[in-house]
Every structure is written in structure tokens, then in C-alpha cells.
Amino acid sequence: MSTAIWKEISNTPYACSSLTRLTGGTGNFVYRGTLSHPLQDGTRTVVIKHAEDYVASQPEFKLSTTRCRAEEYMLNALNDLPKQVEANVSVKSPRLFHFNQQTNTHIMEDLPNALDLKTFLRSSAASALSEPSATAIGHAIGKWLASFHTWGSAPERSDLVVEIQKNQLMKELKYQINYEVLMQTIDNFPDILEASRGVFEKVKGLAKEELERKKDEDGIGLIHGDFWTGNILLPNASNPDESPVTIFITDWELSQVCSRALDLGQMIAELYELKHFKDIDAGVWILQGFVAGYHLPLSDEVAFRTAIHVGVHLVCWGSRVPDWGTQEQVRDLVKIGRDFIVKGWEKDRKWFEGGVLGCLFGGR
């Protein structure tokens, strides 16, 4: 694949002297390219992302390339969204330099020496991260997400929304791998989940209804669609106490018009898992900063919907990551996820207050 990409870009301003395959993603073929000639702004490296009509790591799993157009539209439009700066941390999306619609190849801005946030928090570098620094990182990411959700609801984005609504296959995929898988997971933990089947069915029905809801209904709007720690990039020695930190929000293929709670809930769940499985305190610090930074007032409806999605993610994904934790830890996480779903559905605000999701309701 690298040979084909090399040939494709050889007669463009983005011709490269070397390509290095990047790890971490599963859906596409992603490389860091060293440019044969720097761009006018001094850029020397780029990220090249190539898609086929299947998952790169699992070719038998077919995946429509319409996802590439959604990412192109989003990245081009996001040039109009100012980066968010919080203390010593700035957050933005990468610039898109070039997109070849015939080959589904993106060439975009590189963040040198970067790790995704999940990998960073599990590395030795994160051990030097103080609570204020971790909170600042979370706050900046939350502030950026709020600005993105607000930006996406502006009338000026109506044409973009029309285009992103065409990304229906990816929207349905997100529903399937969360809410249909939720029902399937009951059979894996019947002693924990069977009694909640009725609530799970109702939650699945709600998520199904959301597929047809329109922008500007409560909590509905343009969302990232895959907003988790694996799609947050930062330099591998990031410490806001010592020097400015730049964070990239990447991977826009699942962009869609749906519940904003999906972006909030997925990120919160992933950060919570870092504490649950690996006892990484920075996971909770970033989580709390993230919710505080997302300064948009959450209606009870959106707060409870977020809690539900946190629970769904914990049950569906937290129980399936290989070698993530012991069987006892997995079972405990499934119980926690179940309770988030049930109490979120019941709108039991008092139950959440004082717990890790109390921050969704204005307290900890």
C-alpha cells in the first residue's frame, strides 16, 4: 500500500522522501511522510491517511468510503473554528492540505512526536503530570468540544450539516456497535445484566429514535462521532507546567448529526476506564476538567443521556478490550455501567450526586 501512495503523491507538492506507517488506528492506512521539499510555511512532515472500502486491520469487514468525504468536509470547515487556548494548552483540528477523492487519500497536518491521550496516560511521561496540569488538559478539551458543538449549530453551518447528514452509514454503524451490542452483551454477563434487559431495550429504542432526530432539538447537533482518548493527540512529553502543549482532535470519519451526549459519554467512559483498570488518577482529573470545561449548561435530559452513554460504553467496550484488566475488574465495570444506564434512564439525580458522574449535574 505504501508504494501505491508514494507513487500517487510523487508529482504533487507533497512528494515524500520517506513514509513511516503509524500505529494506533484500525480503519485506515496511515503514514507519516517526510516531504522531499518543505512547504512554503516550513512544514517538513505530513500525515497521509488512505482509506479502502474495508477496515485496514480487518479486510473482511467492509466499510463505505463515504466516510472519507465526511472527514474532508469537516476538516475544511473546521478551519473556521478558532483553536481553544486554556492556560498553557491549545486544542485544534489538524489542517487538511489535500484530498484525492478518486483514491480516498487525505494529506494533513502532522503533530510531531505525538501520542494519543490513552497511550500517553499509560506511559511513564504521564507520571510527572500534576493534578492541576491534568485538569488543565481536560478543561481545554472540554472547552474545545463545547465550542465545536456551538459552532456546529450556527446557521452558517447549514450547508455543512446537509453534507454530514449524508454520512448515514457511519451513523448507523455507531448505533449498531453500541446499542445493538449492548443487548448482545447481556448473554455474556447474564447474572449481572439480565434483570436490566427491559431498561436496555428502552435505551436501545431511544438511541434508534435519535437516528431520525433533527439538528436543534434538545441536545441534537453536529458531533464528532468518535470522541475518545484514542483520537486526541498530544506531544509525548506534554506537561503544561513546563511548556505550551498543542492538542489535535483527529479522525472525523464518524461525524454525524446526533445526540451531543455521545461525544461527552464516550470520552468520559474512556477516561474512567483508565482509573478503574490501571488506577491512573490523571484519568479522573482529566475527566473532571473535561466536564468543567464543557461549560455549556447541560439540561437534565442531556446530562442523563450522557450518563446512559457512559454506561453503554463501559458495558460494551470496557468488557471487550483484551488484557485490559482482571476478570473481576471487568465484572465490576459491567456492574458500574449497568447502574449508570439504569439510573440514567430512571433520571435518578440524587443517585449520581457525590459520584464520579456528579459533575454532570453541577457537583462532584
From TrEMBL:
A molecular-function term among this protein's GO annotations: kinase activity
Question: Protein name, please?
Answer: Kinase-like domain-containing protein
Record flagged with keyword Kinase:
yes
Pfam families, per the entry = EcKL (PF02958)
Query: What InterPro entries does UniProt report for this protein, alphabetically?
Result: EcKL, Kinase-like_dom_sf
Gene3D superfamilies reported for this sequence: 3.90.1200.10, Phosphorylase Kinase, domain 1
Tree of life domain: Eukaryota
What keywords were assigned to this record? Kinase, Transferase
